[in-house]
Amino acid sequence: MSTFTFFEAGDTVDSIDRVFTSAWSDNLNDLTTNHFSSSTQYNTSSATSSGAFFQEVYQKDPTLDGAEVQYSIAYGHRVGSGSLDFDNAEGGKGFSATRSVYGQYRNLVFGGDETQNFSFDGHVSDGIYVININRARYKHALRMGNLSLHLSDGSNPIKLTDDSVTTSGSANAIRAGVGREFNIVSGSGGIRVGTSNIYVTNSGSYGYVYPDAGFIILNGDALDASVADKGINLGSTQGSNEASTNANLLRMDIKNGGEFILDGQEDIASKFYFVRAKNTDFNYTTNDSFTEDDGTLKFDSMIDNPETYITTVGLYNDNQDLLAVAKMSQPLPKDFTKEALIKVKLDY
């Protein structure tokens, strides 16, 4: 008959280990210039095509084996400029892919409050760029403090990071729908250059990163600013009812920048069970090599000095259903002169 021992207070301990790995495929730490798009996906000539809403970016030519989407780029505009209207009728003007993108992320960040607009340290920009990291590329969140995104028009890069180190990990805000919000600032390694988030003349700050939701929102006006004003001359198309390739403009400036480093964060929850076998416990067994059919010991020498070997630990619920089994690396001898403490770890 099996013997069950209940765990007591202090016999179990909960633990969380935080693991960081590169967000990019093939264990790439930095995408450098590996930013490829698919011509079949990125088509903006139709108002409702997927390319009008976003461009997917791969770490290698999409036609090659192993090519995987790393992130996507979307351009949003508050009043729908920069993409074709869904309907050319009078009532359909301004309703377009870019307006949908702007509204989608406004709803996410501001919890459905459509009176809110994206403000970058006081500057309201009608146009925004969204870098959405593919969900498969990170686990629970993006790691703050090592984000490095360089953007360049070909010769004058701006070097962007989050400001988590500068702010000692304090989020700029906690948004109900997307969690923590950090500033995107000029600098490196999570450290802001200077004392202000505002770098671009008359255009506010560069943007925000939402590590728990896995996306970055960049200020379109700041990117369109001149190099002298610390922008990158991105040249966003903002005409009404006009098909644009704004997402591709940003992809090329990311590629020209030559550095995009980002890690994913995974929290591995563990529970430790300390299984205690006291000197009086588990010294007998019903194994056929130990007892006769009637339950008597096969060897008289074990009557007063039995010896068993612990090979397996089973964890049961209150109904005595076996839930988990832990195997010993080697049999552990047990008798009345020995006690055992076995630590079992479950990850989930």
How would you describe this protein?
The radius of gyration is 30 Å and the shape is elongated. The chain has helices at about 50-55, 95-110, 220-225, 245-255, and strands spanning about 10-20, 55-60, 70-75, 120, 125, 125-135, 140, 150, 160, 175, 180-190, 190, 205-210, 215-220, 260, 265-275, 310-315, 320-335, 340-345. The protein contains 4 helices and 19 strands. It starts with 11 loop residues before the first strand and ends with a strand. The longest helix is centred in the first third of the chain and has 14 residues, at about 95-110. The chain has 2 domains: about 25-260, no CATH class; about 270-345, no CATH class. The strands form 4 sheets. Strands 2, 3, 6, 8, 9, 10, 11, 12, 13, 14 and 15 form an 11-stranded antiparallel sheet that branches. The chain is mostly beta strands and about 350 residues long.
Keywords:
mainly beta; eleven-stranded antiparallel β-sheet; four-stranded antiparallel β-sheet; 10% helix; 348 residues; 2 domains
SSE layout:
Blueprint: E1 12-22, H1 50-53, E2 55-58, E3 69-77, H2 97-110, E4 119-120, E5 123-124, E6 127-133, E7 141-142, E8 148-151, E9 158-162, E10 173-175, E11 179-188, E12 191-192, E13 207-210, E14 215-219, H3 220-224, H4 246-257, E15 260-261, E16 263-277, E17 308-316, E18 322-334, E19 340-347
Antiparallel strand pairs: 1-16, 2-3, 3-6, 4-5, 6-14, 7-16, 8-9, 8-15, 9-11, 10-11, 11-12, 11-13, 13-14, 16-19, 17-18
